[in-house]
Amino acid sequence: MYDAPTPETRLTQNTTKITARGVQVYYGDKQALKDVNVDILDNTVTAFIGPSGCGKSTFLRCFNRMNDTVASARVQGEILLDGENIYDKRVDPVQLRAKVGMVFQKPNPFPKSIYDNVSYGPKIHGLTRSKTELDQVVEESLRKAALWNEVKDRLNEAGTGLSGGQQQRLCIARAIATSPEVLLMDEPCSALDPIATAQVEELIDELRASFSVVIVTHSMQQAARVSQKTAFFHLGSLVEYGDTSTIFTNPSDPRTESYITGRIG
Amino acid sequence: MPILLLIIVLGVLAIAGFVLGRRRALASVEGNTRRLHSLPNYYAWHGAIMAFLPAIAVLTLWLIAQPLIIERQLSGYFPTEQFENNSQRILLMADVRRVAEGLDVAVAAGALSETDAASLSADGSIRERLAGVGVALGADVTPQVLEASQAYRQLAANGGLWRSVLTLIVAVAGLLYALRITNGDFRARNRVEGVILGVLIMASTIAILTTIGIVLSMLSETIRFASMYPFKDFLFGLTWQPSFQGNSQLGLLPLLWGTLYISLVAMIVAVPTGLFTAIYLAEYASPRVRSIVKPLIEVIAGIPTVVFGLFALVTVGPFLRDWFAVPTGLGSSGSSVMTAGLVIGVLNIPFISSLADDIINAVPQSLRDGSYGLGATKSETVRQVILPAALPGIVGAILLAASRAIGETMIVTMGAGAAAKLDLNPFEAMTTITVKIVSQLTGDTEFNSPETLVAFALGMTLFVITLGLNIFALWVVRKYREQYE
Which of A112, B192, B371, B444 has the fewest CB atoms within 10 Å of its CB? Predict the structure, then answer.
């Protein structure tokens, strides 16, 4: 029911990018995430799988402090990015989000031109010194997102006028334009058709060369196809974390096996 | 039969239709409701509607038509030239009605017998006799008026009788028809649905018809004005100097300038304040603060404008005069463009903030997430993502507020003065179209001189301006609405 990992995507030894220790998240009185410990590796695609409401998206949003924008959310524990606690008082969440980019479930291009969508991040962070440099960043980001050839002649048209798959790749280009170190993807293909999904998945694999990618997905085939590491969440707890091939072929926890064989979830 | 009683009888018939319709439907299927096409209550409502609606329609038409027909019949009692003049006819008919009502009251009180009332002749005694039963007549009753009112009583009594008879016949016929067609297969549900649709359509037509009526009446009076006063001078005249002795100069431009200047000041106050309020409420305020602040701001919208006018007259005007106008040497008047503009601006704040708040809230959360996810701050997100996405709606809100500012009357009357001037100094008293409409029509006036009829031309101008603004607002909203879908 899933593709076996191909040899070239097999995990190579990498340094740890993000370390999460004892992370707990509460929405009001309700605990959404219980005591999660994970090490996310650099230049690796890590997939978070699990049934709806298991806390995987909540955990993903801890990495760039997007939970700060939810008034009722409270995060405990520590998350280290390159050894530095991102929940430290001295860390500015706005600066953090430039380093940890995010792509959302539904493509959400701004109602602006394609060019303005991509140049949004570099502009607000002042990453470029001249228009030529900005043009270069836009082109490079669109090329990395495998969108350049499709839109290079209509950069001034509205980003909302693109197809769903193109919009999602535009959002990826927008996220990588700020040259982040980590790219978070929250079910990036759930609103896309199979062809667009295949394009985005191919892209994710290429992005691994430059970033640490964390992806939340409901599709186990997708997790198996694109990731090297997989974490399985259930009812707010991290059940199992390991190499994707191990999780899918030889899971150690009976709940993981039940989920990937379709008995729970 | 009095109309109230008639309506009560119709109500009773409707209840009968309700009960009988239901009973008959049930009887036609031997009480097995599953064999009915519709639920039993639909047959009941169908019976009630058929008994009530056609009859009430006939009654309404009769009530509208009867006075017109009677008036035509009474024309024989008066000289034709009197009757052809519109205002004289209205006065005469009012007299006739008043005397007829007086006779009715006298008969009811026993001061006159029915035959006395019909044969009474127009000597001086009629005024005293009617005064004795508490009916005061203004002018002397001429023989023609008395005869006409006696004829009026006769016609009205006949009309009343036939009205009742016809209404009841229609009601009973409707009821019987409903009962005749009621059986298990009759689609009462669809019929009732149709009636509901009709009622809804009628309700929505009323507003449209009223608007059309207002426009037509203003248009006809404006055309009359144009026939008495050169319309070109009205549109492009630079002086507003009405004088009831004639030789008026009725130039629109000073009033239009005052209107636009005051509205401009008002919008300069209201747009930024309202917009910033909306941004604070929608993006920054905690739910608790929002639940307190929003209703408080909207309280302003509930204050009558005349109270705002008082505020302008007593507080804002003197304040501006003593602290700004006099020290800077710009003027010495408490009433000024600034006074009225500021107060109208404050009045419009909740209007803009409330609409803009709704519009900003309608911008999808995903756009905010996208911007925050890229490391934008709140104000960057508002400025670069939310406001552009909400722009069409905000423009619509601003234009609606502008048409409110243009149409505002009370505050301008009390705060801006009454002098029609073309001046750039905002501390100078000026006046607006609305104020002049009021001042041309207050007092004892007849609608036959250009000085009064100009009010309609002014009203028409105002209507055209606000209509233009509203159409523009709708166009902006429609053109850009789907941007973030």
Answer: B444
- Residue B79 predicted with pLDDT over 90: no
Contact between A69 and B368 using a beta-carbon 8 Å cutoff: yes
Residues of A near B (Cβ–Cβ under 8 Å) read: 64, 66, 69, 71, 94-98, 101-102, 104, 106, 108-112, 120-121, 124-125, 158, 160, 171, 174-175, 178
> What pLDDT score was predicted for residue B124?
60
Distances (CA, A) of B269 to B274, B341, B402: 8, 8, 12
User: Which superfamily, per CATH, for B235-484?
Assistant: MetI-like (1.10.3720.10)
pLDDT tens digits for range B313-356: 999 999 999 988 888 888 888 888 999 999 999 999 999 999 99
End-to-end CA distance of chain A: 16
pLDDT tens track for A93-120? 888 998 999 999 889 999 889 999 999 9
Which residues lie closer than 8 Å to B70 by C-beta, 6 or more apart? B152, B155, B156, B159
What pLDDT shows up at residue A8?
A: 46
pLDDT of A7 over the 50 cut: no
Measure CA of the first residue to CA of the last residue in chain B; give whole Å: 62
- For an interface test with B, give the residue of A60, A61, A124, A127 to mutate (most B CBs within 10 A): A124
Each domain of chain B, given as residue ranges in start order, spans 3-186, 235-484
One-letter amino acid at B404 equals R
Tokens representing residue B88 in the block? 């004289």
Largest Cα span, chain B:
97
Answer for the pair A237, A36: CB distance below 8 angstroms, yes or no: yes
Q: Say which amino acid occupies A256.
A: T
- Give the closest of B367, B369, B376 to A124, CB-based: B376
Share of chain A above pLDDT 70, in %: 94
**Which CATH code, of 3.40.50.10310, 3.60.15.10, 3.40.50.300, 3.40.50.360, is assigned to A15-260?**
3.40.50.300
Type of residue numbered A27? Y
| CA atoms lying within 13 Å on the CB side of residue A261 | 10
Q: Is residue A64 classed as helix, strand or coil in its secondary structure?
A: coil
Residue A81, min C-alpha distance to chain B (Å)? 16
Q: Of the candidates B374, B380, B483, which has its C-beta nearest A111's C-beta?
A: B483
Chain B residues lying within 8 Å of A96, measured CB to CB: 375
Q: Tokens 């209550």 belong to which residue?
A: B41
Give the pLDDT of residue B301. Answer: 84
- What is the residue extent of each domain of chain A? 15-260
B287 and chain A: CB distance < 8 Å anywhere? yes
